[in-house]
Amino acid sequence: MPNLHILLGQSQRGYRIEQVMVRQAELIVANTDVNVRLGTSCYDNPVQSDMIHQTSESQFAIHGPRLAQQLIAWVQGTSQKSGPSIVSAAYFSPTAIDVTIQHGSGSDFTPTSGITGFDVSFDGASTWATVSGARQSARVVRLTVADRGGVAALIRYLGTGLADVSGVLRDNTTPQPLPLDQGLANLTIAALQVVETPPPFSDTFTAADDTLLSAHTSDTGHTYSAEANRYRINSGTVSVPDTSGVARLTLIDRTFLKANQYVEADIFFSAGSLDASSLLLRGSGTEYFIAGFSVGSNRWIIGKVQNGTFAQYREVAFTPVIDTPYRLRFEAILNEDTTTTLSLLVNRAAVLTPFTTPAGLLTAPGKPGFRGFGTGGRVRWNIAIAGEI
Q1: To pair with 284 at 20 to 30 A between CA atoms, which of 5, 90, 200, 358?
Q2: Which CATH number fits domain 230-388: 3.40.50.2300, 3.40.50.1820, 3.40.50.620, 2.60.120.560?
Q3: How wide is the angle at C-alpha 350 spanned by C-alphas 348 and 356, nearest 5°?
Q4: Would you put residue 42 in left (φ > 0), alpha (ψ -120 to 50) or beta?
């Protein structure tokens, strides 16, 4: 028996919210039944003065070709053409929310600014405010929102009807671009965890309770008691700030009872210019064991800094994937013969062959932390923890 192709459409009569509900029902079926394919979207097409019927141009130049490319893909047995969809959202700052999208057939989107269709609620969906967005990367839309102190929020797309057609997000699918799919539910945004950023050229340390201590530039006059085997450096996000010089931030300064230590953190590369950024284990005031990312050569690096000189290091080529977190674990193990073995693990896999430094380099119990070095762009660190091995 031959395949039976049935084309379903919806009446153009009714309120916008009814059309939205019909569209969401269509998406549920198309996303759960392998025998059902989504035809095409027309909510972003220009309409006539009655605000219902499409213009002749939109029917013949946009809607027709969109449906045709879907039918051709079906007949040829190839993947259906699909537009981008929203996968997550999080605060970037108290006045900005980053919406991450997943591409279907395309790889980027337009417009780059004035993106419409988004609403945000700060009171559990009781009231909604319309917001606009701008492109931050091929997968991130940044929404500008009112400053509510970073409280938990909700966002939705086309929750009450159609957006301004001129600002609808469309991908670069060929031959006919496709608009952003409507979400099936409101998206929850966790409350923002605020992390203070220190001034350039300073070290800021945290106490055991995660509170920030006074900034200082050396270890002189600062002593700390030993802590438990594992503790949190910071539970929030720290970004390398935009500066004209070197920005340094050490999140923890704790003296350990033993020299076998580790530091773990998630590093997240945002779009734009990348900065070198690294995890550190400090042996003394002038000696650091370092592991991290080198922007100049696009490499993971591991080695030792003594009196400002970087030496005895190893590196491996690495091209960061934007908007993707990497879990780094940096270990320094003092062996019985007083040599120190360093290793760098990324996403729980060793990417650099551990190597041993000469005896006598570890002159004092280490103090774990990280420093970010950069002149622009952002490298973000999350969930930093440290402890004894």
Answers
A1: 200
A2: 2.60.120.560
A3: 135
A4: alpha
Tell me the CA distances in angstroms from 35 to 4, 5, 41, 67, 208, one per residue in order.
Answer: 11, 10, 19, 17, 57
Higher pLDDT, 382 or 205: 382
List C-alpha distances in Å: 338 to 239, 255, 260, 306, 386. Answer: 36, 18, 11, 17, 22
Percent of the chain with pLDDT over 90: 12
What's the pLDDT score for residue 365?
A: 28
What is the fold of 85-189?
Immunoglobulin-like (2.60.40)
- pLDDT for residue 240: 36
Query: What is the distance between the alpha carbons of residues 14 and 176, in angstroms, rounded to a whole number?
Result: 28
Q: What is the DSSP string of 333-345?
A: EE-TTS-EEEEEE
Q: What is the mean pLDDT of residues 319-335?
A: 71
Domain boundaries, the chain: 16-76, 85-189, 230-388
Per-residue pLDDT reduced to its tens digit, 369-381: 333 333 333 445 5
Within 13 A of 365's CA, how many CA atoms are on the CB side? 13
**Both tokens of residue 140?**
């991130």
Predicted confidence band of residue 211 (pLDDT cuts 50, 70, 90): very low
Q: What is the pLDDT of residue 145?
A: 93
Q: Can you tell me the mean pLDDT for 244-269? A: 50
Three-state DSSP state, 293: strand
369 or 150: whose pLDDT is higher?
150
pLDDT at residue 359 in the model: 32
Give the angle 233-277-248 at the CA atoms, nearest 5°: 65
Task: Write down the residue that tokens 């219902």 correspond to.
Answer: 52
Residues 370 and 237: beta-carbon distance below 8 Å = no
